[in-house]
Amino acid sequence: MTVFFDVDDTVYSRTNAFVEACARFFRPPLEDPFTVFSCCNRRGDEVFKASQTGEITMDEMVIYRYCRGFADCSLTLSPEDALALQRTYEQVLTHITCSETMLSILRLCAARADKVGLLTNGPSWKQRGKIRALGIEPLFSPDMIIISGEVGCDKPEPEIFRLAEQRSGCAGRQILYVGDAPEIDILPAAAVGWRTVWFNRRKVDHPLCAATADYMADTEEELLALLPAALS
């Protein structure tokens, strides 16, 4: 058996990092940075593919994500402030940590499964930086860290899931995938026959994902509790 984990909003919370970045950046502070993050995240998903293929620059993606996301919350953010906020956010990401509970989760999987890996979207430099900051790189063999920016395809494309199968030597129900995003993680993983754990940190309402996932957890503690059954 192989277990793959998504990184962003799975191994660590992007929401917490964004909230901290906003606390540093805005005076007075935002009233509801959690909702703002949700809106920015949704807007970012709209242009992620275009940013990866070069149709738009990374700066254009950031401006679209933040300016549109803030507007969805009836807030105004200039393009210049969007880029400055992103720089603050990236500074916060260099200091992200992995909780003791998440470390226990990863170690449990390493002890129970034949292989454990990471399967994540994003540019190589950015995702590698997060993995190093989290201190989890030594837990995985190099070939089991699969980053879309390094392999030329990204989730939800089935090609990246097939590549993960080749790397792991497992396929179908022999693979358990833990991720947070319904459309990018859980539904496409289930479509290629993997078992899935929907780690719904942000408590998103998605009935199809809820019906599709083999297991669901909202907190790290719930995830740790269900893993023994999922790994059996």
3D structure, described in words:
This protein is α/β, with parallel strands linked by helices and 232 residues long. It contains eleven helices and six strands. It has helices at 14-25, 33-53, 58-72, 79-93, 100-112, 124-134, 148-151, 158-168, 182-191, 207-212, 220-230, and strands at 2-5, 115-120, 145-147, 175-179, 195-199, 215-217. Helix content is 56%, strand content 11%. The longest helix has 21 residues, at 33-53. The chain has a six-stranded parallel β-sheet, with helices on both faces. The chain has two domains: 2-12 and 96-230, HAD superfamily/HAD-like (Rossmann fold); 14-93, DNA polymerase, domain 1. Strand 4, helix 9 (182-191) and strand 5 (195-199) form a beta-alpha-beta unit.
Sheet with most strands: strand arrangement:
3-2-1-4-5-6
Mean pLDDT metric: 96
User: In percent, how helical is the residue content?
Assistant: 55-70%
Listing every helix as H and every strand as E from the N terminus to the C terminus, the arrangement reads EHHHHHEHEHHEHEHEH
The secondary structure category is: alpha/beta
For the largest beta-sheet, the strand count, sense and barrel status come to: 6 strands, parallel
Strand proportion: 5-15%
The first-to-last residue Cα distance is: 9 Å
* Alpha carbon gyration radius: 17 Å
What is the total domain count? 2
- Going by CATH, the homologous superfamily of the largest domain would be HAD superfamily/HAD-like
CATH fold name of the largest domain = Rossmann fold
CATH architecture name of the largest domain: 3-Layer(aba) Sandwich
| CATH C-level of the largest domain | Alpha Beta
Poorly predicted residue ranges: none
Helix run count? 11
Which overall shape is indicated by the principal axes computed on the Cα atoms?
A: globular
Would you count the extended β strands for me? 6
